[in-house]
Specification:
Blueprint (H helix, E strand, L loop, with lengths): L1 E5 L14 H12 L3 E5 L4 H10 L6 E4 L4 E4 L4 E4 L4 H11 L5 E6 L4 E5 L2 E4 L5 E3 L3 H7 L5 E6 L5 H14 L3 E6 L2 E6 L4 H11 L6 E5 L6 H6 L2 E5 L4 H5 L3 E3 L2 H10 L8
């Protein structure tokens, strides 16, 4: 049995929340032939479920929150690690000071966002709600993940917050920059550690591990795999640290099913 770990956004699904017919066809074929599919994403469970409602992708397990939460296909939690509540509150106290900056938190049950004095229920599609965001995060049971990004897709204030968190809490949380937004997760969590946690948890005879992603937070996962791939259109920094390059996910699946482990075109 082989196992595929795949990033979700920008890898399996496009920015318009669609999946190419060939990618979907080959994922279903991979499943039918008895191999395992794992979605590895920075999304929390609510965002992941919302994404699957738009774009149904077969999966056996999901590594969420950049390695902080692992579920099976029935959405049952197999592993969870959370951010210290005091630290999470201080981070959100800081990010909510910036005009035009979105701040989000997920406590494992609900996901709320905030920008410029307004609170949004991310579970309801970022619907504006009459709730006090600061009260919500101060009363949250814990923080699975915190995220923030500028409304204009800029990086000036985003990087200020990124640097603040690294300066004050680098020994207690991980901070991942993904193009325009930042994810904050518990210390020791990455897609690579999530991969290893899952492989230790499941009682399966895994022959070979494949992984594919397109961003910096995918590198730990790609490096841990027997065969790690990125795209030919990925940033040069990512391509330079990843040996195997493809145009589409289905090319990796064809490789898995072909039984030939020679390298694809670099």
């Amino acid at each position: 049995m082989k196992i595929l770990f795949s990033d979700f956004d920008g890898t399996l699904i496009e920015h318009n929340q669609t999946i190419t017919p060939r990618n979907l066809e080959m994922l279903e074929t991979l499943h039918q032939q008895g191999h395992l599919i794992v979605i590895c994403t920075g999304r929390n469970i609510k965002e992941f479920q919302a994404g699957l409602e738009i774009c149904a992708v077969p999966f056996d397990y999901a590594v969420l929150n950049n390695g902080g939460h692992i579920i099976n296909r029935h959405y049952e939690t197999l592993y969870e690690k959370v951010i210290d509540k005091t630290i999470g509150i201080d981070i959100l106290n800081h990010t909510t000071q910036y005009k035009g900056l979105w701040s989000y938190f997920c406590d494992g049950e609900e996901t709320y966002g905030y920008k410029d004095g307004y609170t949004y229920d991310h579970t309801l599609g970022n619907k504006k709600v009459d709730k006090d965001f600061m009260a919500l995060y101060q009363e949250a049971r814990s923080f699975q993940i915190i995220a923030f990004n500028q409304d204009d897709e800029g990086l000036y204030d985003t990087l200020h917050c990124f640097d603040y968190i690294r300066q004050h809490y680098s020994d207690q949380v991980e901070v991942y920059l993904n193009t325009y937004y930042v994810d904050v997760v518990p210390k020791g969590c990455s897609k690579g550690t999530g991969m290893q946690e899952l492989l230790n948890l499941i009682d399966e005879n895994i022959e070979k591990v494949y992984a594919i992603g397109d961003s910096y937070n995918d590198l730990s996962m790609i490096e841990e795999a027997d065969y790690g791939y990125t795209f030919k259109h990925a940033d040069e920094d990512i391509k330079q640290t990843t040996d195997l390059h493809v145009n589409y996910v289905y090319e990796v699946i064809e490789k898995m099913l072909g039984g030939n482990d020679d390298e694809l075109e670099r």
